[in-house]
Design goal:
Elements (H helix, E strand, L loop, with lengths): L7 H4 L3 H32 L5 H50 L2 H6 L2 H43 L1 H48 L1 H6 L3 H54 L4 H43 L21 E9 L7 E10 L4 E5 L6 H8 L7 E6 L2 E2 L5 H6 L1 E4 L10 H6 L7 H10 L3 H6 L17 H15 L3 E5 L7 H15 L3 E5 L11 E6 L2 E6 L1 H7 L2 H15 L1
Parallel strand pairs: 3-8, 3-9, 6-7, 7-8
Antiparallel strand pairs: 1-2, 1-4, 4-5, 9-10
Length: about 575
């Protein structure tokens, strides 16, 4: 039950609803526990024929008890299920908020599809347990406790015999519960694997179909689904066995003890009404214990899911705001400095991505990063945005070390246009607003005009209110890129990071966007990553990276004269352009 204890802080937030649920629970259980007393009185005193009004009064009382039971049960059902829905909504919110703040290194080693399965399927499993299962469990626990107490009041001798039988029932319950929990965890893991595989392939459906790999994907998904089914079947078989064994042991014990009680009635040491009362309380206790055995399986399933969610909540980000962050200077300047920075990605076997890199970028300066693939250009951006911290050296923004200041404040000083724009299944307007959540519609449209995106947006069926497909699949590559540029323009940050910002544009669109970027770059510090050297010739300075180190730096003309790495790259590219 320990994993489910993590839910308790969520439950106690809603004390009035907890109190209502508990009151309704006690009232409904109390109404049920009164019934055997009425039955005993009717059997022992109500059928003598002397006072028929006595019988009428008892039936009226039974009707009143039924009304109380109906109202209390309905209230209990609503209150407990409300708590279940509310708690799961809060858990989902907190888990997602925690995931959103984890560093990229977490998602390098954990599949996003598997993480999403925990966020959806596991929370749904908890909702089922926290709602109906919790309601049934609490009700049956109260019924069991009340029935046992009343059994002792009715006949201590018979009740003592039943107490002796309880360990025979409880021990299998505990043992089977552990098995169910383990099998539930396995079932959830296999389901998560299947979901992750499906999501990954559907996200790349065009690639899958282009390579005519549909049959292979379908076969592999079917295999994953079968593994999930087999795990679920093993869990259900264990739960079915748990239920069967518990119910049989309970009723076998009760029948034997009632047979013993019937001998007392025949001997005249117990009235028929008292035995009937004991029978009803025994039935209530047996029924409550039998239902608890079923609910216990669901609770153990929920415990397995809660354990998986707890693992996510226990993850700690490698990148976080320090306890006493140093404030960045105001107003922002846009000054950047790398001082003897060395960095290796944790998941790449210690291979150095950057080694002893040092450079300074003055406020308002435009610096281009060029070099062959894998030279470390994108790593510079990742360290600037503090997706990672360097193993050695310092990264400074406006004179403050990046790992000593507030993470949110640091990133708000930068606007990124990535090589592969991340668009969402939302409207064009909201996709641009991603750069500045508080921006007005007029600000959004102005940013789109600066990015030369307003013309194609106006041609869309609903203009700025047009919904894009998943990852903006309804737009061309160039259109997606211009939406991303508009988003960066809207952010209005002092530092602009352009990672192949014009790579997906045709010649005409590239010229227009380049003109827009030149206006946006005025007065801002700009770092540009580009393989197409024609786009960086106007940079104030060019840093040439090669194998994680700065091989050379200078203007386009100066580097051509040096006949080094840059000159070789330029000659190869300009020769290829001439052929085209």
């Amino acid at each position: 039950m320990r994993p489910l204890a993590r839910l308790w802080p969520y439950i106690v937030r809603y004390k009035p609803m907890v109190a209502l649920a508990f009151a309704a629970l006690v009232a409904s259980a109390g109404a049920m526990l009164v019934l055997p007393l009425a039955v005993r009185r009717m059997i022992d005193h109500g059928f003598s024929g002397d006072d028929s009004a006595f019988v009428d009064q008892y039936f009226v009382m039974l009707l009143a008890i039924g009304g109380l039971l109906a109202v209390a049960s309905a209230t209990r059902f609503y209150a407990v299920n409300w708590l279940g829905e509310r708690v799961v909504a809060d858990v989902r919110r907190d888990v997602f908020a925690h995931l959103a703040r984890l560093s990229p290194s977490f998602f390098e080693v954990n599949h996003s599809g598997e993480v999403m399965s925990r966020l959806t399927a596991d929370t749904t499993q908890i909702k089922a347990a926290a709602g109906s299962a919790a309601s049934q469990a609490l009700r049956n626990m109260v019924m069991l406790a009340g029935s046992v107490v009343m059994m002792f009041v009715t006949s201590a001798k018979l009740s003592g015999l039943i107490v002796a039988v309880i360990p025979i029932v409880v021990l299998p319950l505990i043992a089977y519960g552990r098995v169910v929990r383990r099998l539930s965890r396995t079932a959830q893991d296999t389901l998560a694997d299947a979901s992750a595989f499906a999501g990954e392939n559907l996200a790349a459906v065009q690639t899958m179909q282009a390579f005519t790999y549909e049959r292979g994907v379908i076969a592999r998904f079917a295999q994953a689904v079968e593994l999930s089914f087999e795990a679920a079947r093993a869990r259900m078989r264990a739960r079915a066995g748990l239920t069967a064994i518990t119910i049989f042991l309970v009723f076998a014990g009760v029948v034997g003890i009632l047979w013993y009680g019937a001998q007392d009635v025949l001997a005249g040491t117990m009235t028929a009404g008292r035995l009937g009362q004991f029978v009803l309380y025994s039935a209530f206790a047996a029924g409550a214990l039998g239902e608890l055995s079923e609910v216990w399986g669901e609770v153990q399933q929920a415990a397995g899911s809660a354990e998986r969610l707890s693992e996510l909540l226990d993850e700690r980000s490698d990148i976080a705001t320090p306890a006493d962050p140093k404030p960045l200077p105001q107003p922002p300047c846009g000054e950047i400095a790398f001082k003897n920075v060395s960095f290796a990605y944790p998941t790449r076997g210690g291979e150095q991505a950057l080694e002893n890199v040092s450079f300074d970028v003055a406020p308002g300066e435009t610096v281009a990063l060029v070099g062959p693939s894998g030279a470390g250009k994108s790593t510079v951006f990742s360290l600037l945005l503090r997706f990672y911290d360097p193993q050695k050296g310092q990264v400074l923004i406006d004179g403050v070390r990046a790992n000593r200041t507030d993470l949110h404040d640091l990133r708000t000083r930068m606007a990124l246009v990535p090589q592969e724009p991340a668009l969402f299944a939302d409207t064009v307007r909201e996709n641009i607003r991603y750069g500045a959540p508080d921006a007005t519609d007029a600000d959004i449209e102005a940013a789109a005009k600066l990015a030369y995106a307003d013309k194609f947006i106006a041609a869309l069926p609903e203009g700025y209110e047009t919904h894009l497909g998943e990852r903006g699949i309804t737009l061309s590559g160039g259109q997606r890129q211009r939406i991303a540029i508009a988003r960066a323009i809207l952010r209005d940050a002092p530092v602009l990071l352009l990672d192949e910002a014009t790579s997906a544009l045709d010649a005409e669109s590239e010229r227009e966007v380049q003109q827009a970027l030149e206006r946006v770059m005025e007065g801002r510090t700009t770092l540009v990553i580009a393989h197409r050297l024609a786009t960086v010739q106007r940079a104030d300075r060019i840093l040439v990276l090669n194998e994680g180190a700065i091989a050379e730096q200078g203007s386009h003309g100066e580097l051509r004269k040096k006949r080094g790495v840059y000159a070789r790259l330029a000659d190869l590219q300009f020769a290829a352009d001439a052929v085209l």
